[in-house]
């Protein structure tokens, strides 16, 4: 009954996502979106330039306006072509992860990206004595391709994981088929084995030995937590390794103007603006995944659907990462 109630909602979500995809890639919507995002970034940059001059002149009221336009710049930057959305969206499609956790990863990766920009600029200024051009070239020529390679590896991992699950399911089905078709043609009487003692199995899920009280290995929950943490750190690192060019320009300019703290704060607010888009992508990717699974009857069909979704998501991430890498080199 609950599945029947979810079906119309699932179909609606899938229909909306399909319509958006057709508009973006079939009707030229992606070009319009890129143009709109570029215009928004340019307008935000012009507004920030004026507010920075006012802030340098001592107008502290300009700080609030600067932060607002930094957020707007981050939003428009994320609305255009970018690697963060692809990675977060692909991961949300490929793996069954709670929407809150994926949204948290989206925010963390955007803020870590801002931290990379701060680290690059101030290491370049105080340690390496780099020029502005050297910093930007480092971000564009080295860090950007590295980021795309890492994102491609995540996509490849999702793809291979889906293939492995699909293959293992096929093997189980083939192994079960002969047993299902085999009929003994006679009855087996019940066998009652009375050992004279109770079987009390105390499964210690925290991997603590009942006899000595010490842990001889990680529990299942601990292993899952380590894997989740490892995945999260890799996802955050894949996005964060390539800093936003707009944040670099803001940090360099505010350092030269002697208003460093305003630039650092602005870089992180830009990160929050970027996160506003990637969080939306995270929510939509989880909704698309769950809506698709709601249409499946369950059992082996669900496992097969999960595997196919993971393969498709991984292939999409690899394809986009390869395109971004080819454009960057």
Structural class: mainly alpha
Radius of gyration, whole Å: 26 Å
Count of alpha/pi helices = 10
- Element pattern in H and E: HHHHHHHHHH
Q: How many strand elements? A: 0
Task: List its salient traits.
329 residues; mainly alpha; 10 helices; elongated
Question: Explain this structure to me?
Answer:
The structure is a single chain. The chain has a domain at 61-172 and 229-327. By secondary structure, it is an all-alpha fold. Helices cover 79% and strands 0% of the residues. It is built from 10 helices and no strands.
Summarize the structure.
The protein is built from 10 helices and no strands. The protein is mainly alpha-helical.
Give the helix/strand layout:
Blueprint lengths: L1 H25 L2 H28 L5 H18 L3 H12 L4 H28 L5 H50 L38 H21 L4 H13 L2 H35 L5 H29 L1
Helix pairs in contact: 1-2, 1-9, 2-3, 3-9, 4-6, 4-9, 4-10, 5-7, 5-8, 5-9, 6-7, 6-8, 6-10, 8-9
């Amino acid at each position: 009954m609950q599945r029947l109630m979810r079906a119309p909602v699932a179909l609606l979500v899938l229909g909306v996502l399909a319509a958006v995809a057709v508009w973006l890639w079939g009707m030229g919507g992606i070009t319009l979106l890129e143009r709109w995002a570029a215009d928004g970034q340019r307008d935000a940059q012009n507004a920030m330039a004026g507010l920075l001059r006012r802030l340098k002149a001592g107008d502290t009221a300009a700080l609030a306006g600067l932060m607002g336009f930094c957020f707007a710049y981050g939003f428009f930057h994320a609305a255009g072509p970018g690697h963060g959305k692809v990675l977060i969206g692909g991961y949300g499609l490929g793996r069954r992860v709670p929407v809150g956790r994926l949204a948290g990863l989206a925010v963390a990766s955007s803020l870590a990206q801002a931290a990379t920009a701060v680290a690059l600029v101030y290491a370049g200024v105080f340690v390496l004595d780099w020029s502005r051009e050297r910093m930007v070239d480092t971000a564009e020529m080295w860090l950007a391709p590295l980021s795309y390679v890492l994102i491609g590896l995540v996509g490849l991992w999702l793809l291979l994981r889906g293939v492995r699950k699909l293959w293992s399911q096929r093997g189980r089905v083939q192994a079960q088929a002969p047993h299902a078709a085999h009929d003994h043609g006679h009855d087996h009487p019940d066998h009652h084995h009375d050992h004279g003692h109770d079987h009390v199995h105390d499964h210690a899920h925290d991997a603590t030995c009942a006899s000595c009280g010490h842990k001889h290995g990680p529990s299942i929950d601990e292993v899952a937590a380590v894997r989740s943490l490892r995945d999260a750190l890799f996802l955050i690192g894949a996005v964060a390794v390539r800093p936003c060019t707009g944040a670099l320009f803001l940090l360099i300019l505010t350092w030269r103007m002697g208003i460093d703290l305003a630039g650092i704060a602005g870089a992180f607010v830009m990160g929050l603006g970027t996160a506003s888009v990637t969080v939306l992508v995270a929510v939509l990717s989880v909704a698309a995944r769950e809506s698709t699974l709601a249409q499946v009857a369950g059992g082996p069909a669900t496992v097969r659907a999960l595997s196919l979704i993971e393969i498709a998501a991984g292939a999409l991430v690899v394809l986009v990462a390869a395109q971004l890498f080819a454009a960057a080199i």
